[in-house]
Specification:
With about 140 residues, the protein is α/β, with parallel strands linked by helices. It is about 25% helix and about 20% strand. The longest helix is centred in the C-terminal third of the chain and has 16 residues, at about 95-110.
Length: about 140
């Protein structure tokens, strides 16, 4: 209570604040608190063992402020990023899939190595024709 401005007291100058510190405000509990800067955030106090979220109205940032059992404050700063909109997914119809399979089978039939020669090469142990394994 400021006794300097009481009605029955002489006009005294207002009392200065201790140690030149700015007046601190308690942050309201249970609601979003908007701040404009970190300096304004640092001017707010929290009770011991508390945690609160503060939103920055000037930047895309928010702060999580926690206090320990003796009231020492720690501030974690986070930045909002807009999530990109998902691109529409295109699916293949059964008809398009069947057409692709037919196209691939046609390309396989037109390959340089006919199926009969490839089967013979696989039975020879993967060696070209005319080469035989040495018997011991």
């Amino acid at each position: 209570m400021n006794f300097a401005n009481m009605p029955n007291q002489p006009n005294l100058p207002p009392m200065p604040q201790l140690f030149g510190q700015p007046a601190q405000q308690m942050a309201p509990a249970g609601e979003i608190v908007w701040v404009q800067s970190v300096d304004q955030l640092n001017a707010l106090t929290l009770p011991p063992n508390a945690s609160r979220i503060y939103m920055n109205s000037a930047d895309a940032e928010f702060y999580i402020v926690t206090t320990d059992k003796i009231g020492m404050k720690s501030v974690a700063t986070y930045t909002f990023l807009e999530k990109p909109k998902p691109q529409p997914v295109e699916y293949v119809t059964k008809a398009e899939f069947a057409e692709l399979i037919a196209l691939l089978k046609g390309a396989q039939n037109e390959s340089n190595l006919p199926k009969a020669e490839s089967a013979a090469a696989s039975t020879a142990g993967g060696r070209p024709a005319g080469h035989q394994a040495k018997s011991q």
